[in-house]
Amino acid sequence: MTRARVLVVDDDPDLLHLIGLRLSSAGYAVSQAASGEEALRQFHAEQPQAVITDLRMDGMDGHALFARLHEAAPSMPVIILTAHGTIPDAVAATQRGAFGFLTKPFDGQELLERVGAAVAVSPPVRATSDDGQWRQAIVSRSVVMDELLRQARRAADESGPLLIVGPVGAGKATLARAIHDAGPRRQESFVALACDSLAEADLEKQLTGGEALRAAEGGTLFIDKVERLGAVAQARLLALVHVATTLFGRGKGSLPDLRVIATSAAPLEKLAREGGFRPDLYYALAASTLKVPALTERAEDIPLLVAHFVDRHGGDRRLSPEAQTALLEASWPGNVGQLRSVVEQALNQSVTPLVPASLVQKVLQEGAEQGFTAFDEARRGFERDYLIRLLEATRGNVAKAARVAQRNRTEFYKLLARHDIDPAAFK
Fold first, then answer.
1. Average pLDDT, integer, range 261-288
2. Which CATH number fits domain 130-291: 1.10.287.1120, 3.40.50.300, 3.40.50.720, 2.30.30.110?
3. Which end of the chain has fewer CB atoms < 10 Å from its terminal CB, N or C?
C-alpha cells in the first residue's frame, strides 16, 4: 500500500528532523522544506496528503505559505505549528480554513493523531499520466473502486452493449461517461437519454431514428434508468442493441454505428423473470455488466469526496474537522448523490467560514425526515409502473385495463394523462 506523504516546513533544522523522524517511524513518507518557497516547489512536485508548517519563518512565512497552498488546493489539510506567542495567529489561520494547529513544544502522540486525522480527509492525488485522465471525475482510493475501475478500463475497449448496475446515487452515470472517455469512441459524442424524465412516446421516437441516435453516431448512446422503459421502447432498444435492419432515420436497412451503455438501479434479472422487463433485452445488455458499490462499501472514499465537493462549490467556506467526522459517521442511503447534497447545503447555509458539525447534523436530519415523507413520489412511481404493466397485459385496451384497476374509464384516462402514457403504444 502506498504510504501517505506529509510535507513538513520549518526553518529550524532540529525541529524539522524531529518531526520527520516521528512521522517516518509511524509509516508516513515525509518531505521536508526549510522555507516557504522550497515548500511550494515540493508541494507541486510531490502532491502530499497533508502539510505541517511553522508560522514564523524568514522570507515567505507560514501565513503566506498557507495562503498560497489554500489558493492552489483549497481542501489540502494544513496544520500550523505555533509558539505560545503566536496562538492568536494560528487560531485566525484555522478560522480561514487551516486544518488546525499544534503548540510548541508539542506531544508526539498529539502530532500523530492530528496528522492521521488530516490525511483521512485529504483530497485525492491527481493522476499525472494521460491514461489517467479518463477517470478524473471519479474520486476514489478504495480497493473496491480500484477493482471496478480496472474492469471499467477493460470494458472501455469493448464495442458491445454494457450494463452498469448499482444503487441510486452511487455514480453509475459518472462511470458511464468515464468509460466513454477511455474508449476508442472518445472523440465522438456521448448522448444521454434519461428514461425517468422523458415521456414514453419521446423515448420511442429517439430510439427509432430521433435526434439522439443521429447525435450519437460514432459515439455512445447512454440509456439512464433503463428499467423505466415501457414495452415499446424496450423493443426499440433491443432492435438497436442487436443492430437490426430497421429504419434508423437514414434509410431502410441502414445500421447505426454507436455503442449502448445502460444503467439500472432495479433488479433487472428479477424483473425479467417476473415479466416486468423483456428477458431478451436483459440478456443482451447484461452480457457485459459492471456493479457500482454503495457508498458504505467504499467508506474510505468519503473524505476525498467531501474535499472534492467543497472545492467544486468554491467560496471561502470549509468544513470543520468535527463536521467532517460527522459525515464519516453518517449512513448514506442516497450514496454519493446524497453526500454531495448534504455538503453543498451545509456550505450554502453556513454563516461562518468554518462549517460547524451542528449544521451538518441539522442538514442530515432534515434529509432523513424528507426521505420518510417522500410518500407522494413513491406513489407516483408505483402508479406509473402499475399502469404500464396493466396496459401491457391488456395490449392497450383501456376499457379492460380500467375494469381490472376498478376505475371508471374517465378516471383511468386522467391517470394515464397524469403520467404521460399513451395507451396506443401498447397495441
1. 92
2. 3.40.50.300
3. N
Instruction: Write the CA distances from 198 to 255, 314, 353, 421, integer angstroms.
Output: 25, 32, 41, 11
Measured on CA atoms in the order 196, 180, 141, 307, is the torsion positive or negative? negative
pLDDT at 201: 87
pLDDT of residue 375: 43
Which residues does 167 contact at the CB level (< 8 Å), separation at least 6? Answer: 265, 292, 294, 335
| Residue 371, pLDDT above cutoff 70 | no
Q: Is the dihedral of CA 144, 336, 372, 329 positive or negative?
A: positive
Closest CA to 281 of 264, 297, 302, 293: 264
130-291 has the same fold as 5-120: yes
Per-domain boundaries in the chain: 5-120, 130-291, 295-373, 375-426
Report which DSSP code applies to 124. Answer: P
Query: What is this structure's pTM?
Result: 0.62
Q: How many residues does the chain have?
A: 427
Domain 295-373 -> CATH class? mainly alpha
pLDDT for the residue 355: 92
Pick from 244, 239, 248: nearest CA to 216: 248
Residues 285-313: tens digit of each pLDDT: 998 999 999 999 999 889 889 988 888 88
Q: Quick check: bond before 105 cis, omega within 30? A: yes
pLDDT in tens, 97-117: 788 888 888 888 989 999 998
Count of CB atoms situated within 10 Å of the CB of 70? 18
Is residue 225 left, alpha or beta, with left meaning phi > 0 and alpha meaning psi from -120 to 50? left
Q: What is the crossing angle of helices 409-418 and 398-405, to 10°?
A: 100
Instruction: Check residue 374 and give its pLDDT.
Output: 42
pLDDT digits (tens, 9 = 90+) for 61-71: 888 898 888 87
For residues 64, 67, 70, 72, the Cα torsion angle rounded to the nearest 10 degrees is: -80
Rg (CA), the chain: 27
**Cα(147)–Cα(162) distance, rounded to whole angstroms?**
17
